[in-house]
Predict the structure.
Amino acid sequence: MRRFLYKATDPETGKNVKGVIQAETEQAAGKLLIAQGLAPDTIEAEDMNGWLAKMQNKVTPKDKITFTRQFATLIGAGLPLSNALRTVNDQTSAKGMKIVIEEVLADVESGKSLTDACAKHPEVFDRVYLALVQAGEMSGTLDLSLKRLADQQEKDAAVMAKIRGALTSPLITLAVIIAVMVFLMIEVVPQVEDLYVSLDKELPSLTSVMVAGANFLMHQWYVILVMVVLIVWFVIWFLRTNVGIRWMAVFKLNVPMFKGLFLRLYNGRFARTMQNLMSTGVALLDSMQISAEAMNNIVLQEQIEEAEKKVRAGKPLSEALQGADYMLPLVPQMAAIGEESGKMDEMLGKAAKVYEDELDEQVARISEMIEPVMMVAMGGMAGMIVAGILFPIYSLVGSIG
């Protein structure tokens, strides 16, 4: 299905109307408009390939959460699938999500299952989403599956927001420090140099270094700009390569201060995803495969896939997970209890809850640890300012006196 922008005339009222309609071709769009009692004036295919269109039509996690929650509520209230999708579409203001819903609705009305319709949009609906929707369709509990999806999406979004919040404050502080240093180098340091030159005095060593830096900053700023652009480009390119993806995965799992945070994030995500999949009837091996893809970390994904091979060979899940380097002990322990009690999904859900609570504490602890580091950095900047700018001025005043 393609989207067409149209302008038409309502023959009954004589009013001009415009909007968006989905159809296979421009001719088909015109026939649909005529069937609706409109006289088409212009019909143009909507440009979906430009970078601006892609930015405007991007589906955010918040859009997907809102759609899933509303959809679950309507399905739970007993509305037919097509009516529920149409109602959610009417209530959605996000353009990107609206486009996706319209295409899913068109596919559902043409006879496709909701799972197949959603599978055409992998950038919005990942494998976990599709697996839960499929399980819900097969078991007749689609509303419960969608509710679980919305709950998991909200938890993931809340966790990522806390992590970003813990990192945002120090980054802002660092940016302020750099801005102050640049201002001093451009505005204040040259005045100190002029003062020494006018008095025929020799600049102190630290001040000379700062003067050289200020001159380079003012006269060779384009070199710095080019270097920054090249470094940013290289980092982005590197992190998209297979080597870069693996390096970042290992870095997250071993970086000092943040290691515990990422371990709890990934272990909690694995346990929560397994719980949601298994509670809707997805088989253990399929749940492990899908959960591995949901990790967003190639190292952990490979370790879970290796554990899945052991389970396939006949080992219990608890034993298969014990050899994984980055799998925290509580997950295999709770899996063992689940194997004995027959409540695997419930036990994994409890493990996920423990790690989610610990993650909150870890984020708060990291925030407290970063603050002293920033204070030391600001103190170092203040010391440099005093040593390189104020002391020389005081020395000049003292020598003149």
About this structure: Residues 288 and 308 are 6 Å apart (CA to CA). Strands lie at 2-9, 16-23, 39-45. Residues 2-46 form one domain.
